From TrEMBL:
Top-level division of the source organism's lineage: Eukaryota
Domain N-acetyltransferase per the UniProt entry, residue ranges: 194-282
Protein name according to UniProt: N-acetyltransferase domain-containing protein
Organism: Populus trichocarpa (Western balsam poplar)
Pfam families reported in the protein's UniProt record: Acetyltransf_1
GO-annotated cellular components: chloroplast
SUPFAM superfamilies linked to this entry: Acyl-CoA N-acyltransferases (Nat)
Example GO molecular function: N-acetyltransferase activity
InterPro entries with a match to the protein in the record: Acyl_CoA_acyltransferase, GNAT_dom
Annotated region (Disordered), positions in chain: 52-77
C-alpha cells in the first residue's frame, strides 16, 4: 500500500473518509480492462514546531526567469534555474520556466500545525519516501477490506506505479505527505517529544495537465483544482491529521493556482465525511445517477469550495478536527 510486461495502471484515490469506500484497481494492458482484478476498498481516516530532519525547511533556493527573443538564452536560463532544485524533485523531463518556478515553490512548501497531542508537518513527497507512502496506502486498503495478506504485494505494485505516473505530472499535480511528532508528559511534569513518523498522505491536482485520466463520477472540471487519495495511518487517526491534510492542500492550492474553486468527492452513504467537508466549507454541486449502482458502484457527491484569498497563507481555519471523521483512501473506477 517491476514487471517485464508494460502495464498501464489507472488508480483513482479519492478523498472520501469513511468505511465501505470502493477502490477498483484497473489493469489495462493494450487498453483492455481486466475486471477480475477489480478490487473494492474502504477505510477509516478520521502553531509551529521545531523542524526535524524529515520535515526540515530546505535552504533558500532561487528561481531565475529570463524573457528574451533568443530560444538559446531562454533554454540556458531554464537550465540555470533548474539546477537550483534538489535532484529528488526533478521530474526527468523538460520544463518551461513557469513550471520550474512552480516546482521550486512545491519544493519549498511547508505546512506546520500544533495539535493537542503533538505537532504536524506537511510537505511534498520525495522519491525516497515513495515506498513508505505506498505501504501506508496498501495496508490501509487491505485492512479496510479485510483482504488476505497476499493482496498487499499486488496493491503495493499497483499503487507504486500510480504514484510514479502521478509524480511525472509535477508541478501540475503533487502527492503530499504529513509527518506527526507526538508528545508525552513525563513524571517530572516536562513534555517529551516522540520521534517523527509518517502520518498521512493526500494528492492534489492543480489544473487540466495534472488531472487524472480516469476521474470518478460525477466528473469535476479538469481545469479546476482537485483533492483526492487521502489516507491516515491507523494508529494516528482521530488526532486532527485528516483535517490538516485537507487544510494543507487548500493552502497549497491557494499558492499554486489562480482558480478558487476546489473539488473533491464524497460517497452519499458517508455521513461523517460529508459533515466534515460541509464544516470545512464544501457544498454539493452534483450527485451520481442511480444508474451507477448497475456498475456496482456507490453513488457519490461532487463537492466544491471557493477558497478565500489568503493574506497570510499560514493563518488558516484549524478549528475542525477529524474526531468525527477518519480520513481514507478510495480507488474508484470511472
Amino acid at each position: 500500500m517491476a514487471a517485464a510486461i508494460p502495464v498501464s495502471v489507472s488508480l483513482i484515490l479519492s478523498s472520501d473518509s469513511q468505511p465501505s469506500q470502493r477502490l477498483p484497481v484497473i489493469l489495462s494492458p493494450s487498453n483492455i480492462q481486466h475486471p477480475f482484478l477489480s478490487l473494492h476498498k474502504s477505510f477509516n481516516f478520521s502553531s509551529r514546531f521545531r523542524v526535524s530532519s524529515k520535515c526540515s525547511s530546505p535552504s533558500p533556493s532561487s528561481s531565475t526567469t529570463t524573457t528574451t527573443t533568443s530560444t538559446e538564452t531562454e533554454t540556458s536560463s531554464a537550465s540555470t534555474t533548474y539546477s537550483y532544485l534538489e535532484d529528488s524533485y526533478k521530474t526527468g523531463r523538460f520544463l518551461s520556466n513557469e513550471e520550474i518556478e512552480k516546482l521550486n515553490a512545491l519544493q519549498n512548501f511547508r505546512y506546520y500545525q500544533q495539535l493537542e497531542t503533538g505537532s504536524m508537518c506537511v510537505r511534498l513527497m520525495k522519491p525516497e519516501e515513495m515506498d513508505i507512502t505506498v505501504k501506508l496506502l496498501a495496508e490501509s486498503f487491505v485492512e479496510s477490506m479485510l483482504l488476505p495478506v497476499g493482496y498487499v504485494s499486488l496493491l503495493r505494485y499497483l499503487v507504486k506505479q500510480y504514484l510514479i505516473e502521478r509524480r511525472a505530472a509535477m508541478p501540475h499535480a503533487v502527492t503530499l505527505i504529513g509527518f506527526y511528532k507526538g508528545k508525552q508528559e513525563m513524571n517530572t511534569g516536562e513534555e517529551k517529544e516522540d520521534l517523527e513518523e509518517l502520518a498521512g498522505t493526500v494528492e492534489v491536482c492543480f489544473d487540466k495537465r495534472g488531472a487524472n485520466t480516469s476521474p470518478p463520477t460525477p466528473t469535476s472540471p479538469k481545469n479546476a483544482p482537485y483533492i483526492c487519495n487521502m489516507a491516515v495511518k491507523q494508529s494516528l487517526r482521530r488526532r486532527g491529521i485528516g483535517w490538516n491534510l485537507l487544510k494543507a492542500s487548500e493552502e497549497l492550492i491557494s499558492q499554486m493556482s489562480s482558480m478558487r474553486d476546489v473539488y473533491l468527492h464524497c460517497r452519499m452513504i458517508d455521513l461523517a465525511p460529508l459533515n466534515m467537508y460541509t464544516k470545512a466549507g464544501y457544498n454539493i454541486v452534483k450527485t451520481d445517477s442511480i444508474r451507477v449502482l448497475l456498475m456496482l458502484q456507490r453513488r457519490k457527491h461532487l463537492m466544491c469550495k471557493k477558497l478565500a484569498v489568503l493574506k497570510n497563507p499560514s493563518e488558516l481555519d484549524i478549528s475542525g478536527s477529524d474526531t468525527e471523521l477518519s480520513s481514507q483512501l478510495d480507488m474508484l473506477k470511472s
